[in-house]
Amino acid sequence: MTDHVLVERPEAYPGVQVIRFNRPEKKNAITREMYAKMTNALAVAGADPAVRVTAFLGTEGCFSAGNDMADFLAFAMGGTMGTEVLDFLRTLAGAKKPVVSGVDGLAIGIGTTIHLHCDLTVASARSVFKTPFVDLALVPEAASSLIAPRIMGHQRAFALLAAGEPLEAADALQAGLIWKVVDAVEAETLSLAARLARKPPEALRIARDLVRGDRSDVLARIDEEAAHFAAQLKSAEARAAFEAFMRR
């Protein structure tokens, strides 16, 4: 199961740690075990001076289809959700070192909102960002309801998070969700991470903290959203939506 997330430190890119989704047969849908491994990798990166930048990557044609629906359905049917998702979101939001990401193809749910916490994101022209939370009788997560309106304004944020409208790469660029549209996603992501890793680390840390500002409101919104999310997961409308999804 842990092989569904690969944590790598490529020799060609000193100072860079890669967290790579590796479950292409399920469109890189994220399980509780995968969240736990990513949380641990972020914690290790934060404590290890040899790691200066973390880069998130998916597989060809798919960053991530979001949370594994089987986990959602299990909780909706009376199981326990665990803390893995919330632990990951809080660790990501509180990361002390730069985080970059590269998207090629599908980026659904958390596959989209994860980039709101990245300092730089590049994507291929065929990438599509979509958050079908309301369609599944759920609500936004990862503090996206706070960060997205700040970045892209109310109309675009509502279209993405509430209406579930997709953003193609060009639209995501215009909205400020990503930094660049590129041809070679992995190469550009790793090159970008390596350039950051070569910069004076303390100066980069201070600059990043100044740009990002205080994160207490982000962490508070993560918790607020999580409470609504958990309640909705137990709702009859969510259970019906999950069952319909699983029958597809």
Keywords:
248 residues; alpha/beta; six-stranded mixed sheet; four-stranded mixed sheet; 10 helices; 15% strand; globular
C-alpha termini separation = 25 Å
The averaged pLDDT comes out at: 95
> Low-confidence runs (pLDDT<50, min 5 residues)?
none
Report strand order across the widest sheet: 1-2-3-5-7-10
The structure class reads alpha/beta
Report Rg.
17 Å
Biggest sheet architecture: 6 strands, mixed
Percentage of helical residues? 40-55%
Count every beta strand, where a strand is a DSSP E run of 2 or more residues. Answer: 10
Order of helices and strands: EEHEEHHEEHEEHEHEHHHH
**Proportion of residues in β-strands:** 5-15%
SS summary, helix count: 10
Concise account of the structure shown:
With 248 residues, the protein is α/β, with parallel strands linked by helices.
Secondary-structure blueprint:
Blueprint: E1 5-8, E2 16-21, H1 32-47, E3 53-57, E4 62-64, H2 69-76, H3 84-93, E5 99-103, E6 106-108, H4 110-113, E7 120-123, E8 128-130, H5 144-161, E9 167-168, H6 169-175, E10 180-181, H7 185-197, H8 201-212, H9 216-233, H10 236-246
Parallel strand pairs: 2-3, 3-5, 4-6, 5-7, 6-8, 7-10
Antiparallel strand pairs: 1-2, 8-9
Helix pairs in contact: 1-3, 2-10, 3-9, 5-9
Question: Can you walk me through this structure?
Answer:
The protein has 248 residues and is α/β, with parallel strands linked by helices. The protein has helices spanning 32-47, 69-76, 84-93, 110-113, 144-161, 169-175, 185-197, 201-212, 216-233, 236-246; strands at residues 5-8, 16-21, 53-57, 62-64, 99-103, 106-108, 120-123, 128-130, 167-168, 180-181. A six-stranded mixed sheet has the order 1-2-3-5-7-10, with helices on both faces. It has a four-stranded mixed sheet with strand order 4-6-8-9. Helix 1 (32-47) runs parallel beside helix 3 (84-93), helix 3 (84-93) packs antiparallel against helix 9 (216-233) and helix 5 crosses helix 9. It is globular. It starts with a strand and ends with a helix. The relative contact order is 0.15.
